[in-house]
Amino acid sequence: MTGGPAEPVLSVEGLEVHYRVRVPGQRGKVTARAVDGVDLVVHAGETLALVGESGSGKTSIANAVMRLIEPAAGRIVFDGIDLVPLRGRALRKMRPHFQMIFQDPFESLDPRRTVLDTVMEPLVINGIGESADDRRKLALVALARAGLTPPERMGARFTHQLSGGQRQRVAIAAAMILEPALVVADEPVSMLDVSLRAGILTVMADMRDRLGVAYLFITHDLSLAWMFADRIAVVYLGRVVEEGTSADLIDSPAHPYTRALVSVIPVPETSRDAQRTVLSGETPNPSAIPSGCRFHTRCPLYRELGEPARCREVDPMLAEVHSVVGGHRAACHFIDQQGVS
Amino acid sequence: MSLLEIRGLTVAYPGKHGDVLAVDGVDFSIGKGEFVGLAGESGCGKTTMAMAIPNLLPRNARITAGSVVFDGADLTTMDEDGLRTVRWNEISVVFQGALNALNPVHTVGSQILEPIRVHDRGTSEAEARSRMEELLEAVGIPAGRAGDFPHQFSGGMRQRVMIAMALACRPQLVIADEPITALDVMTQAQILDLLRSLCDRYGLSMLLISHDLSVLAQTCDRVAVMYAGRIVETGPAGRVFGSDEHHGGARHPYTQRLLRAYPNIRRERVFIEGIPGYPPDLTQPQSGCRFRARCDLAIDKCAEEPTLVDVGGDHRAACWRLDQAVTS
Lengths: 341, 328
Fold this sequence. Notes:
heterodimer, A: 341 residues, alpha/beta, four-stranded antiparallel β-sheet, 12 helices, globular, B: alpha/beta, eight-stranded mixed β-sheet, 9 helices
């Protein structure tokens, strides 16, 4: 982890991702605004967790940052260069510096390749290393770092011979071998048994300490984000509704949505005193985003305050929440009214 | 008096080198109206044990020992006809992966009606319809949506339909196998609240299977933790998860390590810990404590089979080192 302010390695500005989708009961296709104006900053060596439920747009943000899908609007500035207008060779030149780890290690690896070939591939593609032997040595180091030991023996295996946890380690080794400045990790442990998660996250934390890599860590699991990330951004219906340091966000959530999410996080202890706020209904469809504050249709505070018109009419922007360390912001008109009940 | 009493249950699958004992001599019970959680990692035998109750095991699995006494009758010796009347009417199951289990070409209403028609023969059409509508409302779906098809429902709503189906013939026991695994956090909380309220409202007994200890901690009256085909710890949730003052906390080293594998936002922010090694290979014959190869506290004695011993207040653990395994 890094101390003090550092250069942003990634800054996302006004990002929008739209899809054309069919909606039951409607003719033709409509536009779903999966990502609807997102700003994010990830500093060098920092981990930012992007937390949201399904349909929040968190994976679309990740895929847009990786330039796997085309944004409808916005800038994705990596190391001072906007990636959005880049094409072909210019984009390929940048790719070694930002890599991705996918959720499903059973689908993200080619079963016909050996582990060593899988991890060496980024070196081959980018012409790194003097010789095949050179690349082999680099790949063996990467395997050992990812905890695949002994690397010689693990390297000779085919990926289909490995367990889920081992495969995810291969994916990490391959993503890290070019020593990228940023790794986008999309739910990297959600498919693994709980006893294996710590091992994978420890390897990722070790890479953070050793190589200074920054993570954009995509997860639905707020408690995992709190444990692993320096900062958390909570996404709801295509928009960041709150961001802050992990401790701040969990200890004193400001946005009614975050407050509800934090209240229902399952903890491994029986806590009869804890007040849970279970929101009714479901996240609306991104093809029909509610007017004003997009959360007002499910917001307990909105109802508590007698359904103020402002929530229905004015889209709230992220605004500073008073906090000790700063950098805590939430998009709610009535942050100050929290806790009236 | 327990509604369900399992004694020495052993379930075997044929393996290349002899039988694989997925469940190996398990004792387990569920009381009337009790909400019981069954936890463990994948492959520990929790689904096999649960499916052995209404004898819904895969074709190649066999119950080789033990009894499953439900409401006074042993289901392991009951014939198919007898079991058919027990299933749905007495014991129903919400299966894992249920989100895709609804038939896409039938309305949700007709899918709830079907078990009533098949298993509750005496019910008139009008009675069946009104019960179906009542069930939809009970699980939080407006009865007016009975004519809708599954694709018109979200994952959470489909799970509610599956729960309504499970309740269709007014069973005494509902077995829910990972009912919230594919759902969002908020939807998970909704479904858990629903299961809990249905239990209280209808006096149902519930067996909730989950790999996630935190989910069980907050929902269940009592929990059991399985490892490699055996129950290693069981007790009231308040005791196993340690919020009861003065006498709480997991006692088995496996449960303790599993608990440290979850972040706990109510405590200090520390990195989660894994459990080194892998569960034993059940295709090989097992003896002694199944966890000893991964256990920091293992001694020679652990090569002998530990049995569940009471550590107070109906809280039991199967470990030779209970004196050492003090809660953190």
